[in-house]
DNA sequence: TTCGACCATAGAACGCCGTTCGAGGTTGAC
DNA sequence: GTCAACCTCGAACGGCGTTCTATGGTCGAA
């Protein structure tokens, strides 16, 4: 079981979601596909268990982070840790928190985030929404990040700048009066860093939260 | 072409992403699969064009909304319109904004949102991040919504309350000292409304944005 | 030592998928 | 009548998730 999950995570790391097939996994393990079905009842469960396996590492990292006197700063640090983990493993964003029954580490991480909100002056409902909003920002940011890697980049045939530049070029060629906003931000887009973009979104949410908590 | 996209959207509406296959689409159109490949070079393009087709309706609705004197309120209204559209068609969240070359309506919608930020006192970079953050909240919220419909609900064999209640039950059975947060919010979860959750996340982001714009 | 219960393995087979391909029809300009 | 350009079709290919059946291996009971 442990070996199956480790191999599954390795396959996902090497070539992303589509690369994880029962046949490839069986080949890597030197067994037949039927054997994998002995441990796991279908592909969804395999993905959930592999995801939880990987999230275990994130959870361990998060649990090492000591509490400061600012819960919102702690929330931010945890969100950043999670984001960085998903950047390393973009496939995580697609499956994270999909099934908390099978993903007990994800649930623990959720609890870990939520506990910080207990230190804020909020209603239970506000706490519930706040944690969900933060997770949404992390997963949403990282998901977008995974999408924009269309194989050429992964193969190394094209640099990231060239890829973004091509988009920027077509955007620049749009009519300036019809697309004033796109024209204004096209340079930001061309040189943008995903992490900055994530942090900006996160900080907007956290600023709103701080306001709500009156802290 | 038009007929292909209309039929594709109809299939997606009826049974979600997995239901859109070239064979099913060909059958519905009364043609062969090869014919569809004449109009569209592969499935990704089909999905992008179908998505843009559907987003066209959202764009039309958004363009009808008149500007108020509060750009952030206008941003909020547009985001809500987009969210409601994705609630009606959950499959949209997976493909929206994936390729702005093929999704010209999506690009126009992006411009429409961005133009509101031109009325705010922000740097171009802040505008860029703000729009992206808002889209992230919308798509992220709606995506989560699509995930949590695991067929039983779609088939009508189980009510939504029952479904959420089952999750709530397992959460409640967790150790209370180990999971104080989960215990506190389990009731919120059991009765939660996705739209409220989305609005809460959106309003956190918009509150942060308002702070940033000094408005 | 033999036997059966049970855990575990293996891989052929099924049906569905995206995609390719070559063989056609239809149309209108010359 | 000819010839391109446009469009249609469905068999065929390889890969996927999943199922099923047959077979090893292990180990306590007899």
Overview features:
DNA-binding, 215 residues, homodimer
Which SSEs are present, and which pair or pack?
The structure is a homodimer of 215-residue chains.
Chain A: H1 2-15, H2 22-29, H3 33-39, H4 43-64, H5 71-88, H6 92-95, H7 104-118, H8 124-147, H9 152-155, H10 160-172, H11 180-190, H12 194-213
Helix pairs in contact in A: 1-2, 1-4, 4-5, 4-7, 5-8, 5-12, 7-8, 8-12, 10-11
The structure holds a DNA duplex (30 and 30 nucleotides).
How would you name the oligomeric state of the polypeptide chains in this document?
Answer: homodimer
Given as residue ranges, the uncertain stretches of chain A (5+ residues, pLDDT < 50) are none
H/E element order of chain A: HHHHHHHHHHHH
Beta fraction of the residues of chain A? Answer: under 5%
The number of helical runs of chain A is 12
Integer-rounded radius of gyration of chain A: 20 Å
Largest sheet of chain A: none
